[in-house]
Automatic annotation (TrEMBL), chains A, B:
Superkingdom of origin organism: Eukaryota
Claim: NAD is one of the keywords in the record: no
Record organism: Salinomyces thailandicus
Name recorded for this polypeptide: Phosphoribosylaminoimidazole carboxylase
The keyword Lyase is annotated on this UniProt entry: yes
Keywords: ATP-binding, Decarboxylase, Lyase, Nucleotide-binding, Purine biosynthesis
Enzyme Commission (EC) number: 4.1.1.21
GO molecular function: ATP binding; metal ion binding; phosphoribosylaminoimidazole carboxylase activity
Amino acid sequence: MDKTVGVLGGGQLGRMLVEAANLLEVKVNFLDAGRSSAKQVSNHDDHIDGSFKDPEAVQKLAAKSDVVTIEIEHVNTEILEQIADQTDVQPHWKTIRTIQDKYLQKELLKSHGVAIAQSLPLDAPTAEDLEKAGKAVGLPLMLKSRKEAYDGKGNFPVRTKDDFAPALEALGGNKNLYAEKWANFRMELAVMVVKTKEQVLSFPTVETIHENSICKLTYAPARGVSDTVNSQAQELARKAVACFDGKGVFGVEMFLLQDGALLINEIAPRPHNSGHYTIEACPVSQYEAHLRAILDLPLHTEDLELREPAIMLNILGGDTPDSHRKFAAEALKHRRTRIHLYGKGQARKGRKMGHITVCAPTMSEAETIIQPMIDYVDQANPQSTRSASAQPKESQPLVAVVMGSDSDLPVLQPGLAILNKFHIPHTVRITSAHRTPTWMASYASAAASQGLKCIIAAAGGAAHLPGMAAAHTPLPVIGVPVKPTIGDGLDSLLSICNMPKGVPVATVSVNNSINAALLAVRMLGMSDPGMRRRYEEYMVESEREVREKDTRLAEMGAERYAEVYLAKK
Amino acid sequence: MDKTVGVLGGGQLGRMLVEAANLLEVKVNFLDAGRSSAKQVSNHDDHIDGSFKDPEAVQKLAAKSDVVTIEIEHVNTEILEQIADQTDVQPHWKTIRTIQDKYLQKELLKSHGVAIAQSLPLDAPTAEDLEKAGKAVGLPLMLKSRKEAYDGKGNFPVRTKDDFAPALEALGGNKNLYAEKWANFRMELAVMVVKTKEQVLSFPTVETIHENSICKLTYAPARGVSDTVNSQAQELARKAVACFDGKGVFGVEMFLLQDGALLINEIAPRPHNSGHYTIEACPVSQYEAHLRAILDLPLHTEDLELREPAIMLNILGGDTPDSHRKFAAEALKHRRTRIHLYGKGQARKGRKMGHITVCAPTMSEAETIIQPMIDYVDQANPQSTRSASAQPKESQPLVAVVMGSDSDLPVLQPGLAILNKFHIPHTVRITSAHRTPTWMASYASAAASQGLKCIIAAAGGAAHLPGMAAAHTPLPVIGVPVKPTIGDGLDSLLSICNMPKGVPVATVSVNNSINAALLAVRMLGMSDPGMRRRYEEYMVESEREVREKDTRLAEMGAERYAEVYLAKK
């Protein structure tokens, strides 16, 4: 903590970095223009005014700093190579140099066996070259600049031969291009990885939604993605970052393909837009993690865990110079909303001016809170080509309702109505313990990693489903005995309830799916105060209803009451 | 958000205030010495170097600012009164003037019917005056300076007549003293209150632990305090703050007396040490809440709710100038630990140099994480008179295990062993549905507000306890049927399970308290990933045990196995 950090660049990433550094009394010197975003929140005389591409200025910064790092990768790595003799440069200048060239970046990853899209280098290509490339990697393909490309700049999608001419017109002047195989992805994921002296750690897997190739939204954790894919994505991201020398955080963007495979899209050797959410959502933010990594300070796996589901929405410049401030004023009207403005002055159309983060006990609560703010952004940009994936998704189900046979469904319907009444996202499935034993086992085993919180299982007769599900999951299982065609259902009840010591099932009475659902609501309310409040309101309402009946009965007398109210039944 | 805020004082409270302001692009001008703590994180030319007691400097600040506020109440309110003609001063200068004089502060509260300790003004008292005061309010009493007192400075406890002379020696030169009735408190609580243009809102009730009259620890929420007391404390705090004019946050410190009554101790008209935890633990911090209040920006009740239990530990200056940085280096070794250093340079003994905050899914987890850091602090200050209440408390129970009769206890013991195995804080009580119906009802009704998360209820025969408990609480209730003297327990099981629609009980099999406890573990694991990991380990371990038995059985043959292993039973 006694070391001074020098940073090339002083934009919003530098600003959030120094906000973390201020907490630790770590001095940070920025090299950037006068009152740039980062310098505004760090008041001392050792910042350097100038361009982070100016060799002399970088030398000056190095002379004042024990560790030099970057908040943008488009730096002069020759100078970094020079100053590395006298100062610690993190991550290694070779890493920055390799990553700067997206084609080399991918070649390096490929040589380490990391899954990436097939790529072909193209040096000032002609239409003919594009035709060849199209044969090699297939059409559509993505024509990309190897260097200085970000936020979609330097990329051109080539869908058919008709796109060759416009593609060459847009990027043809550039010698350093490459063609990348089109990734037919289901969604885009991102993982922030921290490379310390000894370890490679990772933050959770998040879902990113881009609009016009600029990051718009980040959902942490990624919605509708199993813990298995989540872990695979983190492993892939750690494996990719382990290929590079040096310390610090790395932003790893990847594609989840339609077939479930994961592919690295690209890597940033610095804090990243897709990691902003960590400021509120994790015990240690990506910015503090970067500092801890480059300064050899301790960092723990648990520091990078998610405290609560979070959604980040970027604030981009709109049509007026104060559009971002107007949006912020609007956002303040919403609960649980944390605003970050970057101090960049007047807005330019599409420029990143700030972001907001909403954390809540459940993702569906966070989605509900942020939706009006997404709507506000979308209204302000009617001409924007809204990406299909920006549409609200179905919420991550919290409760799985399973049955052995569709004949049990009518018994479960009153319970499903209760789940709907309490706005609990749920999924309803048929997983028979006897006719689909493997499917039943795999479904129950994966339930926890799918983000489910509890299982309601209905079964009649032998009624093995609830107990078998409980044997395969650490989640609480609620068993609903179904009355079979023969007998009163006591057999179902006892079969569900009489589990051996070690594997519990929460049993309710025969056909009572309402109580099963209410039990699930009570369980979710243990950690979600809003849910508990709604349950308490339900209890009051339910008491009121019975008291009204009592009043009516007293007023009408038993005989008339039975005629009017019970005759119907 | 377009208004400029001027702040008298630029210490750590100002620093954390401007950290919040930076996020909203709200410009803050500080009046304080050169590179004071707050100015270090706010880089512009409109700060004013000087004393916040200097009338001219305050005038200058006012001329540059749309709203003037304070981060310390020991300011010159005559000047605030003057500038109030040209600038908005928040909170109102009258409020600051009244609060500055602790005796007047209490008189005002008293006149509004707010519970405070009995107080007597003493103007340059003699031993005789103290004797009279002792008769009026009783001995021991607290002799206090009316003004300029903080962190225990200006307070002198007068326990017996022997303390008169030393008390007068310590404070006697001061004309403005008062005697305060001794508060025999069970614990000290604090609530941060936000007074906006229209509303009086409050953060949660926290527990504060003082050492040598300086705040050492804050526990949010207060441990072992019912939601009822929690709400009462918030109501009292809001009522107290409503007595004062103006907008902003107020720190309200109070005593919870042995008899359960609440008494205001004192009020600070600004952000407060006991509210630092809000930075990590609430959607909006006390600092941002102060800004939103004085700038008439929106604020919502839910913004002030607790996201996770949190503990704050102050970092006080030790014996060496870098003691606080050494402590911070030590604290970094612990997971989930957020460090705040204030940039105050070299430490002075006992000076507030920073603080740490630990948030975790449960209070007992937060306590486990922070304990070594408390131990480190205590080791470094062996001569400190450690307050008895700084000792770790029994953890907030998460599970209540209740039974109708102590004869059910043996059935519950294996379940209690499971709760202990999983380190789940729990409480065991006798609440008979038939012999103590009122007590049973009041216990179950209060359970949620006591911080309990679920109830395990055992009963035999008529076995009404689980269902009756469920009727009184929104928490999940797990019913354990106990085998009665007559019959096999099926009667107990059906009585517990067959609840009417609307009131669920999670029923396990007869005498199976192990499954009841495991069900509670699964429920807690829904929102506590650490608990779920431990449960998964338990499942693996349990599978391993059975597999070992199977191997042994296969090796030994059935006959020999039965002889060796089953004969004992």
